[in-house]
Amino acid sequence: YLVHFNSWEATGNLYDASQKWMEPLLRMMTEDARDHGLLNKYESQAGIRLDDLKQWFSDGTITEMTITGSDFYVAEGTDLTLILKTTNAKPINTRLQQWVADAREQHADAEDRSFNYRGVQIFARYTPSRTISSFAVQHEDHIIVSNSHVGIRRIVDTIQGRLPSLASAADYQYITAVHPPTNEADDGYLYL
């Protein structure tokens, strides 16, 4: 799946909708009606908070955001990847470094490493329990952050043309031809 936003307004609209009906709907569809604390879980794992995204959209640091993943088991724990189109990567990288420092204070077993994958440097921050699980890479004017080492490698493979991109899929091309995404400030789209 893929969710794409052109502005904070679109992101905020989705967040508001998730608070109003997505989270309660998820609770109704499961055997135990409890709040899974998903937003906090994924913010803590990846190191990017909703407030950060709001600020970066409002000051023009990011101009587009895409969220992608491979399955819908969000409550159980799925891989989520944020692709941020940025005009200035420095505030995002600074925030990720601050998050690493904060995480080390709370989790003595937190690792902070980088590794080379197909010639691309990936920054990895994680704990064995995956309470922290953040993998980041910068590609041109994009910063990509994932809570999955498999997810970030798929993105690198797609960038390098080793895997097909969603944009090259015939069904995606058809849908976006019939219902083209707009550049309206409060617009976004969800592709499943």
Protein model, in words:
This protein has an 8-stranded antiparallel beta sheet with strand order 4-5-6-7-3-2-1-8, with helices on both faces. The protein contains 6 helices and 8 strands; from the N terminus they run E-H-H-H-E-E-H-E-E-E-E-H-H-E. With 192 residues, it is α+β, with helices and mostly antiparallel strands.
Short characterization:
The chain has 192 residues and is of the alpha+beta class. The protein has six helices and eight strands.
pLDDT under 50 segments (min length 5)?
Answer: none
Helical amount = 40-55%
Strand content: 25-35%
Overall body shape: globular
For the secondary structure, the number of strands is: 8
Overall mean pLDDT stands at 83
How is the main sheet built? 8 strands, antiparallel
Strand order in the sheet with the most strands: 4-5-6-7-3-2-1-8
Q: What's the total helix number? A: 6
